[in-house]
Every structure is written in structure tokens, then in C-alpha cells.
Amino acid sequence: MFSFLHHLIAWLMSKMKDKSPRGMKMGADENAKVYMCGDLMEEIQALVHRHPDKLSMETIKAENKGYGAEVMVVTYCQGNIENHERSKFRILLSFGQHGRELITSELALRILSILSEEQFLPSMNRTSLNSTLDKLVIKVIPMENLNGRKLVESGDLCERRNGRGVDLNRNWSVDWGKKEKDYDPYEENPGASPFSEPETQIIRKLAISFDPHVWVNVHSGMEALFMPYDHKNATPDGLPLQRMKLLLEEVNNLHCKKHCMIGSGGGSVGYLAHGTATDFMYDIVRVPVAFTFEIYGDETASSKDCFRMFNPTDLSSYNRVLNDWSAALFTIFKMGSYHLGEIHSNASVSKLEKWVSIDEYLDGYLMERRNRYGKKMEVLELGMQEIRAYFRLFLLSSVLLMFMFCSRISKAKYTRPIVSAMPL
Ligand SMILES: [Zn+2]
């Protein structure tokens, strides 16, 4: 069975070389699968180049202990992003965090095609859509786990982790490393420490600098709409809960035929997940609307048939998934931006809450150094705690010195003869 799938993927990849439109490459019989490999990233690059007025892209690279990763980020913004990024409603979407969930990156391409007006949402009026899009900056990470995806494309269809066996949705710092009784390292290896993986470092840095209003982490394996938290059986409360619940209920009614599971990841999925991206985005980056969407799953599939468990295998399901979930995300864009005023009016409060702790700052700083100098800086990892302590001491002594300096100046001022009295 496995080698059959391997050959099938190889066959699909060889078929990709032709230039027929992307979407379905169906064979003559029912065993033929959706092709979802290989040139997706090239196709996204070509799309971006066709629409320089709306789309731009960058590739961010990082390395840790000889393991390198790169993440492509596509930005949608009408007009000059330099002038608008801060004043607009900001959305950050990630796809393909788990290698085997190929359909999620297909959805990224669909979203970008709709944004560039090469494809259209059947149920949405373009004029009203444009008035929404005018207020947004959307950053799309089409394939967060490129190295893991390569493993899947080379035949390891059950691989969800990155290129060196770490689960990128367990490598974040909120409740990192805690293991449940049914912990399976093949599935959930959290890495050597929080942010040990270059992919996670890249997304964290991007999220902190972009400071989004909405984060959606798109996965497959089931159909569900999750809000925080993943690491405990609880949701946030008060206004943040109401805001997120309202959005999820709307998406469930409009695009999920009310059958999607809604709730906290930890409370709904049947297991707790520690060190996830969405918990970090909500708790540390303070993204007011942070979701994990699970867009497709086949519970009847054999647990050995990962392709079928995580991805649609026929044309009609493939199209249904992409149509329903692109509409769902555009509903989030539209409804989410209605909250812009409300979030802006709370900005002064959230700004106070947004002070990143010195540990967070130092992690970011040292991460940058490590990336720049590679292996030479590995020793810093061992001494991270000590460096933090020295840094705190340094800050404390600087404050003391400043205090002494200021008190000397004020003494000197009082002893100086008064030359003239300046009116205000
Ligand atoms: Zn996943």
C-alpha cells in the first residue's frame, strides 16, 4: 500500500511538469488522487509577480545547529504598505505547519488567487469585498513547514513534524514541554527547548513585528474552529471570549453547516496540546482574535492511510473544501475588520499589556544573534539564564548610576547663581 502511494505521488509529481491549470489532475480511475505537491510555491511566486500592485513576498531564513529552514511570506495590501501597515487591520494566516496536511497550502493559494482577483468567491459581492479589503493588510505563510512537506512529497505521507523531527505546533513557549500520558514522540516532539526550531523563530519574530489583530493557524485532520487555549480545558473570558465566539459561530453557521466543533482546542479536541502557536499568539503576542481552523478530515480512513486522513482524494471534496474555507476566511476578514474601531479604542489598554517581558526580548535578541553567527553562538544557549541575570544586573546598575548622576546635577543647579527669571 505504502509503495503504491509512493509511486502515485511520484506519478503525480511527474504529471506536474506540464503547464495545465492547477487544481485537479484526475486519472482515469477512482484511485487517482488530487495532486498537491511540488510546484505550489512556484505557482504562488508567479501569482505574486503577476500582481505587484497588491501582492509582495519575502523569504525569511534561519538556522540552528546546522539545521536551516526558510519560510515564504506573501503580503496583500492595496497601496504602499510602508504608509499603511500600522493604520490598517492586520491579519496573519499560517498554512502547512504539519507536513502531511497538504490541503491547507492549497487553501493558501486559493485565498491569494481571490485576493489578486484571478478567482472569485461565488457568494460574495466584489464591491463590498473590495471595501473590506481596502482596510486590511494580510500576511499569508503558505507553507510554514517546507522541510517536513518535502519529506511527505518524497513518500513519508504520515510525517507531520519538521525536517528534523520536531512538531512545530509544540515548540512555542506557553506551557512548553509538558507531556500527557499518551504522549507520542513521533507525533508531538516539542524540540530541545521553546523556539529551538528555526521555523518557529521566524514566525515568532514576524508575529511580534507585524502585531496582527487576527491570527489563524490552518490545519487538517478534522473539521473544527478552535480558540485558545490548547494547553488547558478553558477559554479566555469576558470581551475576548465574546468577540471570538461570535466570529466562530458566524463561520459555523455560514460555511460549516453548523457541524464544526467550536470551543477551546484543549476542551474540544480530546487532548491537551502544550506549546502551541495559537496559545502563544493569544497569551504573549496579545493577538485579540487567535484561532486554529481544522478544515478537513476523513475519520473513516485507515490510520495507516495518512493521505486520506488529512486530505480530500476526489475532485468534488477538494473543491468543496477550498470553496467553503476560503469563504470562511473572507467572513473572518469582513467581520473581524468591523471590530477595528473597538480594538483601536482599547489600544491604549492593550499597549500597556503588550510590554514584552525582558525574557521574551532577550530570547528574540539572542535568536537574531544566533542566526547571524550560526554555530559560534551555540554556547549562548547554555548560558542563557546567566546572561539574563547579568543583563538584569546591568539594567539595575544603570538605573542607579542615572539616579546618582541626576541628583548631582540638581545639587549643582541649586548652587548656581540665578542669572535671570524666565517667564513661561
Ligand atoms: Zn495539524
Ordered list of secondary-structure elements with their pairings:
Layout: H1 2-16, H2 40-50, E1 55-64, E2 67-77, H3 81-84, E3 89-95, H4 102-115, H5 126-133, E4 136-141, H6 146-153, H7 185-188, H8 198-210, E5 214-219, E6 222-227, H9 238-255, E7 261-264, H10 265-268, H11 277-283, E8 289-296, H12 306-310, H13 315-338, H14 340-345, H15 347-353, H16 358-373, H17 378-382, H18 384-415
Parallel strand pairs: 3-4, 3-5, 5-8, 6-7
Antiparallel strand pairs: 1-2, 2-4, 6-8
The site of zinc ion has 4 residues, from loops.
Description of the structure:
The chain is an alpha/beta fold. The chain folds into two domains: about 1-345, 3-Layer(aba) Sandwich (Aminopeptidase); about 365-415. Helices cover about 45% and strands about 15% of the residues. It is built from 18 helices and eight strands. An eight-stranded mixed sheet has the order 1-2-4-3-5-8-6-7, with helices on both faces. Helix 2 runs parallel beside helix 4 (about 100-115) and helix 4 packs across helix 13 (about 315-340). The chain is globular, with a radius of gyration of 24 Å. Residues about 1-35, about 345-360, about 365-385 and about 415-420 have low confidence and may be disordered. The structure holds zinc ion. Zinc ion binds near residues 98, 101, 219 and 221.
